[in-house]
Amino acid sequence: MARRFEHYTQVGDGAKAVSVGYSTKDRNGYWAIVFVDPIGKRLEKMTKCKVAGKKPDANFFVEAARIIVTAFSTAYPDPKRVTWEEAINKLAPDLREDTLIAYTKSIRILRETLEAERIKPTSPVEITPELASLFARVWLAGTFKRSKASDAKEYKRKPTTLNFYLRQLSAVWNQFIEIGYAKENPWKVVRKAETDKVRKAVPTEEVTAHFFAWIKERYPEWRALHAFVELKALAGCRLKDICVLNSNQVKANRVTWTPEQVKQRDGRSVLLPDELFQSLVSAAGAVYLWQGILDGLGTFRRSKRRKNDGLPSDTVYDVVSNIFREYSDTHPEQPRLNTHALRRRAITLVVAATQNIDQTSQVIGITPACARDYYLDAQRAFQTDDIYRKVAGVLLPKASQTDSEKSPTIPPLNGNKGAQFGTMTNN
């Protein structure tokens, strides 16, 4: 029996018109539609309409019809006539700046690798599954240098980096298919390289305290830098999210990001302690929040190699990254620490405080799945050793049981008021 849909819209005119059914889904507070495209592929597309009730409003149905008509349109250019530059330029208006840079870099690496094998594809449609597999084999067999010096040491390329590029290329090819610039996704059949799944460590409080003490000892008068790393630790966001802030985004004991600055539809807002708020106000320039860091470079961190033609946010990004690297290089006895480690720490500590991953995802600005899979130290957040100490007597079988032991009960666990970890509680 054919599947029944909740809603239908008409595509085309006259005798060629077809009725296309679609269903609705609530995806993180926004309506999505699910329908089957002309070649029988099930598609799910997000709309910009917020969920405000059990049923969508009129604007949703207008946008849903537009999305479906676009998917069923056959007015695509001949893929073979589309160059790499034309294909990327077509995608550019709908991509975040970081995403566009990542896609462009992945395509450049693909082309350079194939050209080294005397294969020069001129269009995305020319990349077949065979060429995609060839790229993976050739690229992984190569080496790279960390310096431009002729005698620089060469390193083997890592399978994890290859898998990253394969995911990037697969993502961009899905978009090429949608706009008619490719006929298939050749990256879906490429065998991924085997890698050891090693979760990056969350810094301990001892390591974090040691780093902050070093910052204040190494740069005692650089107040803007102190405020920067404190905000990084508090907000738990990406380094670039901090670097792009302007002074007018800090007001009323709160720092606010726009949707364009972070990977969230509604932006983000973080409440600040009074002392940190005053530190940020003192460090702020007339326009750029981190003007104090830029002004301090000549005094605290001189460099003849620094480029002055880049964006202020790029300069601050590089400076802070290098300071974290300096700390690790000068303290080999300590675990290596980078800026992203503070994000892992923030997520773990908030989960430990709330005992709830969903609440934490709202606080930090991250999906629950991403927090759980890539950032969370579950042992530290949920104190799993303490849990096992309490339930070991229940879990271990006993050779002989008394009547009272035949139906053991699990002792109540501290935290979350006895509720299951990762679930909401009613206060």
From TrEMBL:
InterPro entries: DNA_brk_join_enz (IPR011010), Integrase-like_cat_sf (IPR013762), Integrase_recombinase_N (IPR010998). Keywords: DNA recombination, DNA-binding. GO terms for molecular function: DNA binding. This is Integrase:: Phage_integrase. It comes from the Bacteria. The keyword Cell inner membrane does not apply. GO terms for biological process: DNA integration; DNA recombination. Residues 399-427 are annotated as: Disordered. The keyword DNA-binding applies. SUPFAM superfamilies: DNA breaking-rejoining enzymes (SSF56349).
